[in-house]
Design goal:
The protein folds into two domains: 286 residues, SGNH hydrolase (Rossmann fold); 62 residues, no CATH class. The chain is 41% helix and 12% strand. The protein contains 15 helices and nine strands. Strand 3 and strand 4 form a beta hairpin. The longest helix is centred in the C-terminal third of the chain and has 22 residues. The two termini are 29 Å apart.
Length: 413
């Protein structure tokens, strides 16, 4: 009788239809590291660590190629001309610089494993809306509306009117006009893209059923480098409070985002700057990391804003090789500049001789095994987390898990 009852119940539900669950929508935004500089050629490096072998298996299909999600889709706005690429989530929705804007490329950011993790954890379909551009600041490009007009720092107020060069604008009045035009542009582009996608999800997901609707379920932010290195906007070098303004701007950003999307408690993940790893304990780096994480400790954001540290995800072994590559680059500069403390001080070396010297210098510094390891795991510079897919995959996974934790109190019965 139990089997018959179960069968009849199944038939009844099939006949009357079970309410479809709404589409879960996640927004990812930021600058070049959110774009994603990790080449898929570095996937194998993930398998060198037993702890991340399961993650690599999730990232690849049975044929060894990058997995294609059945339950997750992505719409990605990027590039100088602000083009969109969209489709089922797979590898290739990373940095698109120099690539065909009509199809996924060969790089990933955090979006790939973020979506894979959400797809595995949720019964509902998943949509990622990503908006990311390289070289963009929070103080200007992503400046949120409630932060008000761009404000000059003490350094800028004192020095910019003098028009002295060294990064100071020659025409201060024209600079102010251009600054006003640039302020908040990428915040607005991001919001316009999000609203465009949400107005017609079927454009991205062909099987989307409007009756099921959608639910905004989270936001991940990975940005900061352009703010961190801007000594004019943040002039208090080597001071623990140097980047307090960044904390204020990010808090405004969270409030405005939630207001503009009518999602007052939208889970918000802050990916805290981690280039250089835990070994970088410089005053300015630590100050910036504290400033990025600070909004997560504000009472108004308790329980729905979480800071995820990315420094522990940095590859120290690849970083050590990167340091040696930097020494090679420095030697190249010394030879070209005829530095007095180096072999070409009198300028006698030909280009061929300099190349031969550098070749030996590099071979003595970086063993064949280290060179092979670098090629296996790295594909970009240090400010892009070495373009290491392992690092970006762990970021995406950690961001998703932090978002899922914030979602639990909001889960529907």
């Amino acid at each position: 009788m139990n089997r018959i009852a179960t069968f009849l119940t199944t038939v009844l539900f099939a006949a009357v239809g079970v309410e479809a669950k709404p589409l879960r929508v996640f927004i990812l935004a930021g600058q070049s590291n959110m774009e994603g500089p990790a080449n898929v050629s570095t996937f194998d490096y993930i398998g060198d660590d037993p702890a991340t072998v399961p993650m690599l298996k999730m990232m690849r299909g049975a044929d060894g190629k990058p997995a294609v999600c059945d339950g997750a889709w992505i719409s990605y706005l990027t590039g100088e001309k602000n083009f969109e690429i969209a489709g089922k989530l797979t590898a290739g929705y990373g940095s698109m610089w120099g690539l065909d804007p009509t199809k996924p490329g060969d790089k990933i950011g955090p979006e790939f494993t973020f979506g894979l993790t959400m797809d595995a954890a949720l019964d509902e379909p998943v949509l990622i809306i990503k908006a990311a551009w390289g070289g963009k600041s929070l103080h200007t490009d992503f400046r949120p509306p409630s932060a008000g007009p761009y404000q000059l720092s003490s350094f800028q107020r004192e020095n910019y009117p003098k028009q002295e060069g060294h990064g100071i604008p020659k025409d201060f009045e024209q600079w102010k006009v251009e600054k006003t035009k640039a302020t908040g542009v990428y915040y607005r582009l991001m919001m316009e893209h999000v609203k465009k996608v949400l107005a017609d999800p079927k454009r991205v997901i062909p099987d989307y059923d409007a009756a099921q609707g959608y639910e905004l379920a989270g936001f991940a932010w990975l940005q900061g480098f352009n703010d961190m290195v801007d000594g004019h906007v943040y002039p208090k070098h080597n001071q623990p409070d140097r980047f307090d303004l960044y904390s204020e701007l990010l808090a405004h950003f969270i409030r405005d985002l939630r207001k503009d999307l009518a999602a007052p408690n939208l889970p918000f993940v802050i990916g805290v700057m981690g280039v250089g790893g835990l070994k970088d304990e410089s005053v300015d780096m630590l100050a910036f990391r504290r400033a990025m994480a600070a909004p997560s400790a504000m009472p108004e954001f308790k329980g729905n804003v979480v800071a995820v540290q990315t420094a522990p995800l940095w590859s120290d072994e690849l970083g050590a090789i990167a340091d040696k590559h930097e020494k090679v680059n420095q030697m190249r500069w010394f030879l070209d500049s005829k530095h007095k403390d180096h072999p070409n001080a009198d300028g006698h070396m030909t280009d061929a001789q300099k190349n031969e010297y550098l070749k030996k210098f590099e071979a003595d510094l970086i063993s064949p095994a280290k060179a092979a390891l670098w090629k296996r795991g790295a594909s970009n510079a240090g400010y892009h987390y070495l373009g290491c897919a392992k690092t970006f995959a762990l970021m995406g996974k950690n961001f998703a898990e932090a978002n899922l934790t914030m979602m639990k109190p909001q889960q529907r019965p």
